[in-house]
Specification:
This protein is mainly alpha-helical. It contains 5 helices and 4 strands. Helices cover 54% and strands 5% of the residues. Helix 1 (30-51) packs antiparallel against helix 4 (124-148) and helix 4 (124-148) runs antiparallel to helix 5.
Length: 194
């Protein structure tokens, strides 16, 4: 259980923060950008849940995803190392990725086949899920920047896979929110009728 008895510590006032292992880094470090963007994604999903209309199944799935995103942030916050730690850090598991794949597959079967790229929009719920999808893609890119950083310790490969699958799921859920894709807004290349 996590206990937060103080919200401000003043320890970050000089532009540094602590990772989960106690290491101090600049707030501009790619690791901080990575889990900061994951946190932003979680907040966007919170807005979607508060503003959109979801079935009980989708609401529960999104709440599960929000919890998973805290796992992603916790995983990113504690660098992987071969050195023994005093505790076992939380790591994103293959099962979390597989769960997303099952949800993608079960929804895709119900969707109207795509005949064009679609514009983010249609219903409010769909638009909010598309917004979450784009933030998810940015989180994925931030994690890839972290991986590509020359001084980065190993990163749990399940993080990148999880974010990749999650953006796919959010796309599918956005289409489901548009009457299973029937009310998707189609892209008209060059602004012309397709």
């Amino acid at each position: 259980m996590v206990y937060l008895d103080r919200i401000y510590t003043r320890s970050g006032d000089a532009g540094e923060t602590s990772l989960g292992d106690g290491t101090r880094v600049r707030k501009t470090h790619p690791r901080i950008s990575s889990y900061g963007t994951v946190d932003e994604l979680n907040a966007v999903l919170g807005v979607a849940l508060a503003s959109g209309e979801f079935s009980e199944v989708d609401r529960e799935r999104l709440l599960t995803i929000q919890n998973d995103l805290f796992d992603v942030g916790a995983d990113l916050c504690v660098p992987q190392t071969d050195e023994p730690l005093e505790y076992t850090p939380l790591r994103v598991q293959t099962e979390q990725v597989e769960k997303l794949e099952q949800w993608i597959d079960s929804n895709t079967e119900k969707l109207t086949p795509l005949k064009s790229f679609i514009l983010p929009g249609g219903s409010l719920t769909s638009a909010l899920l598309h917004q979450a999808r784009t933030v998810c893609r940015r989180a994925e890119i931030e994690v890839q920047h972290l991986i590509d950083s020359p001084d980065t310790l190993a990163i749990n490969e399940n993080i990148l896979i999880y974010l990749n699958r999650l953006s796919d799921l959010l796309f599918v859920m956005a289409r489901m929110a548009n009457d299973q894709g029937a009310k998707d807004v189609l892209w008209k290349p060059g602004g012309k009728d397709a």
